[in-house]
Amino acid sequence: GENVEQHPSTLSVQEGDSAVIKCTYSDSASNYFPWYKQELGKGPQLIIDIRSNVGEKKDQRIAVTLNKTAKHFSLHITETQPEDSAVYFCAASRGYSTLTFGKGTMLLVSP
Amino acid sequence: DAGVIQSPRHEVTEMGQEVTLRCKPISGHDYLFWYRQTMMRGLELLIYFNNNVPIDDSGMPEDRFSAKMPNASFSTLKIQPSEPRDSAVYFCASSLSRRWDTQYFGPGTRLTVL
Question: Is residue B1's pLDDT more than 70?
Answer without folding.
Answer: no
